[in-house]
Amino acid sequence: MGTRYADYTRSYGDTDWIFEGQEIFKRAVIGMSGACADVLASRHLTPEDISLVVPHQANLRIIEAVAKRAGVPMERVFVNVHRYGNMSAATVPVALVEALEEGRVQPNSLVLLPAFGAGLTWCAHLVRWGDRVTPKGTTDVELPAVRTDRAGTRPGVHPQERHDVYRR
Fold it and tell me: DSSP string spanning 24-71?
């Protein structure tokens, strides 16, 4: 089972991406704000009921446009894109942790988590936060550094095996 690498004229991992920036912007804004409206409507809620929005951190223009279309003022939107840039699927979880650390998530609050990603997909999750907003504990464990080459891959590892580490 499996496939062969079809584009044998190109090094494995080298890809040319062509983005239509304006079109992606529109789809991200319309998709995420529409998902926000859908999830709020399904729970018979309004934007005023939302305590905090923790959106996908693609760029500030998208975040501001989603907030405006969703009817939530920027004072209730958590933004950290200026610290890390677009970290893909990690933006919402990292932003949520930072919002907790900064005291922006209150006990029993409603947190709206809209996202946009690969394949031009979008969603919005609505979370009723529990009572606890502080960590259970701390650790002194340090995570090992991940060595990568220029392309962001692990050198010396066969391409098929690069993903096997996540299956263990």
Answer: HHHHHHHHHHHHHHHHHHHTT--GGG-SEE----S-HHHHHHHHHHHT
The C-alpha atoms of residue 67 and residue 36 are separated, in whole angstroms, by 10
Q: Which two tokens stand for residue 44?
A: 């018979």
- 26-128: CATH class: alpha beta
pLDDT above 70: residue 149:
no
In the prediction, which pLDDT does 38 show? 97
Q: Of 155, 159, 161, 152, nearest to 5 (Cα)?
A: 159
Confirm if 125 and 39 have CB atoms less than 8 A apart: yes
Range 88-108 average pLDDT: 95
pTM for this entry = 0.74
Q: Are strands 110-117 and 121-128 parallel, antiparallel or unpaired?
A: antiparallel
CA 124 – CA 131 distance, rounded (Å): 22
